[in-house]
Design brief:
With about 130 residues, the protein is mainly beta. It is built from no helices and eleven strands. The strands form two sheets. Strands 2, 4, 5, 6, 9, 10 and 11 form a seven-stranded mixed β-sheet that branches.
């Protein structure tokens, strides 16, 4: 059974950094793209970044380009999101999701991702 589990969220001060992890199990990771999304209270879920597992191609939303970096470790079956220069506006629940035969080159559209983790809270506050 396909399972995604996020970890690494928490409380951080403005300007700080966090690294989120998405551990995948129960499926052949190489056939998927993995994306990171977030949802703040009262807002729609937003695609942040995604990566094609097979070739490592990536895509980023303009809101995080230059601040967030996505990476995969195929041996550990884990996808990471390194977040730097965090701002209070980054406060949200962060989710990872899987897209069967997906590719990051077409963008990180929520509708393309059909398997989701439960999310990890990230709070940026002084």
């Amino acid at each position: 059974q396909l399972q995604l589990v996020e970890s690494g969220g928490g409380l951080v001060q403005p300007g700080g950094s966090l690294r989120l992890s998405c551990a995948a199990s129960g499926f052949t990771l190489d056939y998927y793209a993995i994306g990171w999304f977030r949802q703040a209270p009262g807002k729609e879920r937003e695609g942040l970044s995604c990566i094609t597992i097979s070739d490592g191609s990536t895509n980023y939303a303009d809101s995080v380009k230059g601040r967030f970096i996505i990476a995969r470790d195929r041996a550990k079956r884990t996808v990471y999101l390194r977040m730097t220069s965090l701002e209070p506006e980054d406060t949200a629940i962060y989710y990872c999701a899987a897209s069967w035969q997906g590719t990051a080159r077409r963008g990180c559209w929520t509708s393309d991702f059909n398997s989701w983790g439960r999310g990890a809270q990230v709070t940026v506050t002084s």
